[in-house]
Specification:
It contains three helices and nine strands; from the N terminus they run E-E-H-H-H-E-E-E-E-E-E-E. With 194 residues, it is of the alpha+beta class. It has three domains: 2-36, no CATH class; 47-93; 97-192, Immunoglobulins (Immunoglobulin-like, Sandwich). A four-stranded antiparallel β-sheet has the order 6-5-8-9, with no helix packed on it.
Length: 194
C-alpha cells in the first residue's frame, strides 16, 4: 500500500493523513499530483472565445449604428433650424419699403376724423406683409401713439399699397410713422402736419 512509499524523506501517507484531505480519493489525487506532476483539469461548460468575440463585435456594431442614426437625425434637425434662421435673416435683409407719400386729410365722406393716407412701395426683391402701422406724435415730448394692425397688407415686389389711418392730428404736429413687417423689420419716416 501507500505506507511504504517515500517521497524523499517524507512519508506520503503520513503527510496526507495530517492534511485536511478527507476522502481517500482526495488523498490519492494529491499523491498522484505530487509524484507524477499530474494536474487535474476541470472541464467547465462555457462559450468559446470565437463566440464571445462575435457577440461583443455584434453589440459594438449595433451600438455604433444606433449612435450614427441618432447623430444623423440630430444633425438633420439642427441643419434645418439653421437653414430656416439663415433664410429668414436673408429674407429680412432683402425686404425694403419706401414711403412714397403721406398726406393729411380732414374729415370727409366715411372718414369722420382727421386721418393720414400712407402710401408704401416695396422696393425689395421679395414680397412682404405689413402687420402694423404705428403713428406717434413726437411734438414737444408728447409720445402718444396709435397702432393699426393689419392681416391683409401683402405687397408684392415693386408694387404700391395705400392705407388710410385715423389719427387726430393738428397743424404743426411732428409725427413718426413706423411700419412693421411680419419678418420683424421696421421702417420709419417723420412728417409734419400742415
Amino acid at each position: 500500500m501507500l505506507h511504504n512509499n517515500k517521497l524523499g524523506s517524507l512519508d506520503v501517507f503520513e503527510y496526507t493523513s495530517n492534511c485536511k484531505l478527507k476522502t481517500k480519493k482526495e488523498k490519492i489525487m494529491y499523491i498522484k499530483k505530487k509524484l507524477f506532476c499530474v494536474r487535474s483539469v476541470s472541464y467547465k461548460r462555457g462559450l468559446a472565445t470565437v463566440v464571445t468575440s462575435a457577440i461583443i463585435l455584434s453589440a459594438v456594431s449595433i451600438m455604433g449604428v444606433m449612435m450614427l442614426s441618432w447623430s444623423n437625425s440630430t444633425l438633420l434637425t439642427k441643419q434645418m433650424e439653421i437653414e430656416e434662421v439663415f433664410s429668414t435673416q436673408i429674407n429680412k435683409i432683402n425686404e425694403d419699403l419706401l414711403f412714397e407719400n403721406i398726406w393729411f386729410a380732414t374729415p370727409s365722406g366715411l372718414m369722420t376724423e382727421n386721418h393720414l393716407n400712407v402710401t408704401l412701395r416695396n422696393i425689395g426683391i421679395l414680397g412682404l406683409n405689413v402687420t402694423t402701422i404705428r403713428v406717434t406724435n413726437v411734438t414737444a415730448g408728447n409720445t402718444t401713439y396709435f397702432d393699426y394692425d393689419y392681416t391683409d397688407m401683402g405687397i408684392i415686389k415693386s408694387a404700391t399699397f395705400s392705407k388710410n389711418v385715423t389719427y387726430p392730428w393738428q397743424s404743426g404736429d411732428e409725427l413718426n410713422v413706423l411700419v412693421f413687417t411680419n419678418r420683424g423689420n421696421q421702417f420709419i419716416t417723420q412728417v409734419v402736419a400742415p
